Amino acid sequence: MSVTSKAIRGIAVYLFIQNDPSADASYGIKREYLVDKQIRLKVLGITYSQIQSGAYALVLAQEDGMRRIPIIIGTSEAQAIAIKLEHLTPPRPLTHDLTVSIMSTFGISLKEVFIYRFEDGVFSSELVLVDADGIERRVDSRTSDAIALALRTGAEVYTTEDILARAGVEFDAEHEGPAAPPQTAPQAPPQAPPQSKPAQTAELQNRIAEARARLDRATEAEEYEEASRLRDEIKRLTEQLDQQRKSE
Fold first, then answer.
1. What is the rounded distance in angstroms from the CA atom of residue 246 to the CA atom of residue 97?
2. Region 137-144: what's the mean pLDDT?
3. Which of 28-32, 63-67, 196-200 has the highest mean pLDDT?
4. Rg (CA), the chain
5. Which of 16, 103, 135, 187 has its CA 20 to 30 A from that of 177?
6. What is the pLDDT of residue 197?
C-alpha cells in the first residue's frame, strides 16, 4: 500500500469513527477499547532478534514497572530508530525526519502514539495528531514508524494493560533480566601471559583509534546499526583506558 493510500485510509477511518463513535471501520474494534486505561512505555533500545534471522527487536519498557515488550522490526526501521537513540546525524534527512519537517510546516503535532492491539504476533498502532486548528485526529501506523516519529518529536508512547499482559516479559527487579535457573559456569579457556601496563594502554589506544575510523566510515555510508555498535565499543574501550591509566 502506498503512502498516499495509507493516508487516505487513515482519514477515512477517522471520518467513519466521527459518524459512528462505537466502532472502528478498519479493524472492527470498539471505540471504548481505545480509551481504556493507558500504560506509558519508554524505548529501551534495539537488539538483534533471536527469533527471526536478519531482523531486530525493538524493546519497549513499562515506565513504572518491570515488564518489557519486544517488537520484531526490519533493518530500515531499526536504522531510523537507532540513529535517534544514538544521537547520530545522517548526511541527509531520512524519511521520518522529512515527515516531521512536513508536519511542522503545516502546524501538525504528534500528541502521542498508542499501541492498541496485539494479534497473531502483530502490533497495531495509531498516531494521535493535533492539526493547526487544534483538532485531534488519529491515523493508523506501523508501530516501528510510530516509534521513530515519537523519538523525533518527544511524543509519549502508550499501550493497554491487556497487551502488556499478553505480549510483555517480566524482568527481575534486581538483575534487570528474565529470571533464570542457576547454571554451571563454563571452564575458562587458558589465558595468555599478561601484558605490561604500558603495552595494554598502547593496545587500547590503538583499538579506540581504529574504532573511531570505522565509525566515521560507517556514518558516511549511512550504516547506522554498525555506527551504533561502534559507538558502544568506543565507550567501553575508553572506560577501560581510563581505568588502566588510573592503575598505572
1. 43
2. 95
3. 63-67
4. 22
5. 187
6. 65
DSSP secondary structure letters along 112-134? EEEEEEEETTEEEEEEEEE-TTS
Beta strands in 86-229 (DSSP E): 109-119, 122-130, 136-142, 156-160, 169-170
Residue type, 60: L
Number of domains in the chain: 2
Q: How many residues does the chain have?
A: 248
* Domain presence at residue 4: no
Q: For residue 34, what is the enclosing H or E element?
A: helix 31-34
Mean per-residue pLDDT for 60-84? 90
Assess whether 42 and 128 both reside in one domain. yes
Taking only the tens place, the pLDDT of each residue in 101-124 is 999 999 999 999 999 999 988 999
Amino acid in position 8: I
User: Could you give the C-alpha distances from 93 to 10, 89, 224, in angstroms and in order?
Assistant: 25, 9, 13
Q: Cell numbers of 233, please? A: 565499543
What's the pTM value of the predicted model, to 2 decimals? 0.59
> What residue numbers bound the domain in which 40 lies?
36-170
Angle at 31 between CA 108 and CA 41, to 5 degrees: 60
Using alpha carbons, list the distances in angstroms from residue 1 to 4, 7, 70, 100: 8, 10, 25, 21
